[in-house]
Every structure is written in C-alpha cells, then in structure tokens.
Amino acid sequence: MNVSRRLLFASAFWEVARPRTALNAGHLLIRLTNPAIAFDLRSAADWLRCHNAARQALADVLEASRCTVVFAHQWHPIGAAIGEPEVESSTPTFHVFGRWDGEPV
User: Fold this and answer.
1) CATH fold of 6-99, please?
2) To pair with 101 at 20 to 30 A between CA atoms, which of 16, 58, 65, 78?
C-alpha cells in the first residue's frame, strides 16, 4: 500500500500524517515537526491533542473503536530494518494503528 505521505493535521509541535508505506487502512504517523524540540510537558500535551485527533479521524472514517500505538525507544532504524517498512526520517515518530470490528487481517 504505497502512497505519498500526506499531512492530515498539524499542531504546534507534532503532525499527523499518512505514511508512505501504510501497513493497513488505519495506519497513521504522529511525528515531531522539529527534532530539536524537547519532549516536555508542553510537547507531551500537544502529542495527546494530535493522538486524540488521529483517533477521532480513524473512528469517523473507519469506525475504529480501538488504537494501538507503536514507537521505538532509544533505537531508530535507518535503512532496511525489521518492523519498519520504509524509514522516512530520524524524526521521533509514533505509529498509530486503528483497529475496528471486521477489519481484514
């Protein structure tokens, strides 16, 4: 499912986008807009705002009632890597997967 990355929502610190290589119909990214931004209370609160916007969009479009969040901790693959279909940058990124009843597996 290769598509160009599409920006869906942007906030002060984060952006919600469709990945270039989506693993399913409910796959979105929440990416830090500037890697120099500290992950502090303000950026964490802003991340929650983006996460809520992403979940609401997945609920509206796919009737996704649940979401899974995946991220790398102290490791970011560059190049070919297991579990990362196409590394887009070294920017901190959270993968959000909408889950819904009857989704194709």
Assistant:
1) HIT family, subunit A (3.30.428)
2) 16
Using alpha carbons only, give the angle 51, 105, 49 rounded to the nearest 5 degrees. 5
Domain spans in the chain, listed from the N-terminal domain onward: 6-99
pLDDT band of residue 1 (cuts 50, 70, 90) is very low
Q: Which residues of 11-43 are buried (b: 16+ CB within 10 A; e: fewer)?
A: bebbbbbebbebeeebbbbbbbeeeeeeeeeeb
Residue 67 has pLDDT above 70, yes or no: yes
Mean pLDDT of 66-94: 68
Mean pLDDT of the chain: 83
Yes or no: say if 65 and 47 are a contact pair by the CB < 8 Å rule: no
Q: What is the DSSP letter of 25?
A: T
Neighbour-count burial of 50, counting CB atoms closer than 10 A to its CB (0-12 exposed, 13-18 middle, 19+ buried): buried
Is the pTM higher than 0.90? no
Rounded to an integer, what distance in angstroms lies between the CA atom of residue 90 and that of residue 84? 12
